[in-house]
Write a structure and sequence with these properties.
- The chain is of the alpha+beta class.
- It folds into four domains: about 250 residues, Rhopdopsin 7-helix transmembrane proteins, CATH 1.20.1070; about 100 residues, 2-Layer Sandwich (Beta-Lactamase), CATH 3.30.450.20; about 100 residues; about 130 residues, Histidine kinase-like ATPase, C-terminal domain (Heat Shock Protein 90).
- It is about 60% helix and about 15% strand.
- The protein is built from 19 helices and twelve strands.
- It has a five-stranded antiparallel beta sheet with strand order 4-3-7-6-5. The chain has a five-stranded mixed beta sheet with strand order 8-9-10-12-11. The protein has a two-stranded antiparallel ribbon with strand order 1-2.
- The protein is elongated.
- The N and C termini lie far apart (about 120 Å).
Length: about 650
């Protein structure tokens, strides 16, 4: 306490002495005040620069470089002060300009510095940047003379000077906020001195906003605040850096040591530090425990107080007889520096360990290890189980080999049967094709017989009957009436014969082609089912439909229309025949009630209905495919497609 009071008394005496010097010569006071701040600025730079290899607080390193150039500007400011007579031809404005330039550099540096807490700092680039700014400011003031006027003789401070002081104060207060936000980066005492220094700098700037004379009282008070500001930053960086370097330069190292000590204490792996003992011939004969952690105690069952400073042969008698030559192994590590990793069983501790050993400094070494007894037991159990499994697999393999041989015989038989089935299916398909062709030929013959024989006979009967009626005239009314009643019957029979002939095979299919036949079929369908309308769309030429396909298309359409009339309850049909992407496509879509496909295909025998199988078979036998899309309530779509290169001829 007495020492602190002595420091306070000494500070008061210095301030009083400075005041008395100002009464004697204000120029002397100003020079002393500025030289104090310049020395402090240079000291900050020296501390930061010479410790840059160790310091990791980029904020302080950045500030150190910045204050070197702030001190440089303050030095030029001091030399240019009114009455120094060094820069002749200049008045108070020159010193004021240099003052503002130095304060801008100082405040902006304090504002920017927090950005480097967690960023990489390229110190050489920063130094080069500040050098460029320093030279540029001197050129603006001395050479180009374009730096704004800061002091007008007889009037006082210029508006630029006053606004700059307020702006600098605002920048400094912002830097305080950023500094406090990152307070975890500093020792608490250092942080308080830094914040106090910046606040005193703000007070100094405010004092310099209203003086009208370079030797005035406000100028005096402002320099007092500046002296105190630099004293605070001296306390924060220089004094602390020299007396308590861990609180400043090596704070991060201190944190690291604390973290590593905590890690050492609480790590789950065992850790031990040893020193090897050698005999007169340089052979390792023992090693001493220097330090162990808590995990070591838990993993070995040994206590730290019984280990540190003692030989391993004292702590673990008989260890030199273990199958693993621990002393020899660790001796080579300590002497050669070659790290090793091994797994070994300790007969002394009756446990398995995985050990990493490396040299710390000759002849000392460190071991990091973990107990793997349970893992080794599990591995042994796993190996035993694996051996048993391998034996069973081998037995099973023999069984599978026998089964495979049997399956090979069965597969060969199955393949033979499959080939026979395919051949039978092929012959059946050929037979079906032949039957369909024979059916169509027979239909054509029957249709021709009906047309040529029955149709001609009926037409002749009708002709003769009409001739007889004309010969009878009105002479025999009763006979005439009887003959006239026969005429409609004959005409109906003629029309029925024509319908049967067209159903069997319309002659126009051969005479006029598929398109005309489809149009005729649709007209006949609409005349029979007047409530159903068919919309037709043909995008194909007659010549593009092969002759072998015309009958197939006609039969598919005939069956589809027959199904629609019987089951769909539709009132509209969309019919499409076109050529698309190298294929001929027939499409028939209705807006009827639809049906369940799975249910239809699951029926047996004649109950299956709808002629679905016959339609698909007819399409496939002709080299095409047929698809049906339907569900209850959505109508039905039948689509048949024939790739032109696969159409049967």
């Amino acid at each position: 306490m007495k020492r602190q009071n002595l420091y306070i008394l000494l500070a008061i005496l210095i301030l009083v002495g400075l005041y008395l010097s100002s009464l004697y010569s204000y120029l002397l006071f100003h020079s002393l005040a500025e030289l104090f701040s310049i020395i402090i600025a240079c000291g900050i730079f020296m501390i930061a620069w010479n410790s840059r290899q160790f310091i990791r607080n980029n904020y302080l390193l950045f500030i150190g470089v910045a204050y070197l150039f702030v001190g440089g500007l303050d030095l030029v400011h001091t030399l240019s002060y009114k009455g120094m007579a060094i820069f002749r031809g200049y008045e108070t404005n020159l010193a004021t300009q240099l003052w503002i330039a130095a304060r801008y550099v100082e405040s902006l540096s304090l504002l920017i510095a927090p950005l480097f807490f967690r960023r990489r700092l390229r110190i050489n680039l920063i130094f080069l940047g500040y050098s460029a700014v320093f030279i540029l400011l001197l050129l603006l003031i001395f050479y180009w003379s374009i730096f704004p006027v800061c002091f007008i003789e007889g009037t006082g401070l210029s508006p630029f000077k006053k606004i700059s002081e307020y702006l600098i104060s605002l920048i400094l207060l912002t830097s305080v906020a950023l500094l406090y936000k990152n307070r975890q980066e500093f020792d608490r005492t250092v942080l308080r001195w830094m914040i106090g220094s910046i606040i005193l700098t703000v007070a100094s700037e405010l004092c310099f906003t209203f003086y009208i004379d370079a030797y005035g009282i406000s100028n005096l008070v402002g320099h007092y605040f500046k002296i105190l500001s630099f004293y605070f930053i001296y306390k924060a960086i220089i004094k602390t850096g020299l007396e308590k370097p861990y609180d400043l330069l090596f704070r991060d190292i201190k944190r690291s040591e604390e973290r590593y000590h905590s890690l050492f204490t609480h790590m789950t792996n065992g850790f031990a530090h040893h020193q090897v003992l050698f005999d007169e011939e340089g052979r390792p004969v023992d090693y001493i425990f220097l330090e162990v952690n808590e995990a070591f105690e838990k993993l070995t069952g040994l206590r730290r107080e019984n280990l540190v400073g003692k030989k391993v042969t004292q702590v673990l008698p008989g260890i030199e007889k273990d199958s693993a030559d621990w002393i020899g192994i660790y001796g080579r590590v300590a002497m050669t520096g070659e790290a090793i990793r091994l797994e070994s069983y300790s007969e002394t501790l009756k446990r398995w360990y995985s050990v990493l050993a490396y040299r710390s400094e000759r002849p000392r070494f460190v071991t990091v290890f973990e107990e793997i007894t349970e893992r080794k037991r599990a591995e042994e159990a796993l190996k035993k189980a694996y051996d048993e499994l391998e034996m069973r697999v081998q037995e099973r393999t023999e069984e599978l080999r026998a089964i495979n041989e049997q399956l090979t015989v069965e597969n060969e038989e199955r393949l033979r049967v499959e080939i026979e089935l395919r051949e039978s299916e092929h012959r059946l398909r050929e037979l079906s094709t032949a039957l369909l062709s024979a059916q169509e030929r027979e239909r054509k013959v029957i249709a021709g017989e009906i047309h040529d024989s029955m149709g001609a006979s009926l037409a002749a009967i009708k002709f003769r009957l009409e001739s007889a009626l004309s010969e009878i005239g009105d002479g025999c009314p009763q006979a005439r009436t009887a003959l006239e009643s026969v005429l409609p019957v004959i005409q109906g029979t003629i029309e029925e014969a024509r319908r049967i002939q067209m159903t069997l095979r319309p002659s126009m299919l051969d005479d006029l082609g598929i398109l005309a036949t489809i149009n005729w079929l649709c007209r006949q369908f609409e005349s029979t089912y007047s409530h159903i309308h068919i919309r037709r769309e043909f995008n194909i030429e007659e010549s593009e439909v092969p002759a072998s396909l015309r009958t197939v298309i006609y039969r598919l359409l005939q069956e589809a229309l027959n199904n629609i009339s019987k089951h769909s309850k539709a009132d509209r049909i969309d019919l499409m025949l076109r050529r698309k992407d190298g294929a001929i496509e027939l499409g028939v879509q209705d807006n009827g009630q639809g049906f369940d496909l799975s249910e239809a295909y699951s029926r047996k025998g004649t109950a299956k209905g709808l002629g679905l199988d016959s339609m698909r078979e007819r399409a496939e036998l002709s080299g095409g495919s047929l698809s049906i899309e339907s569900s209850k309530g959505t109508g039905t779509v039948i689509r048949a497609t024939w790739p032109t290169e696969q159409i049967s001829t």
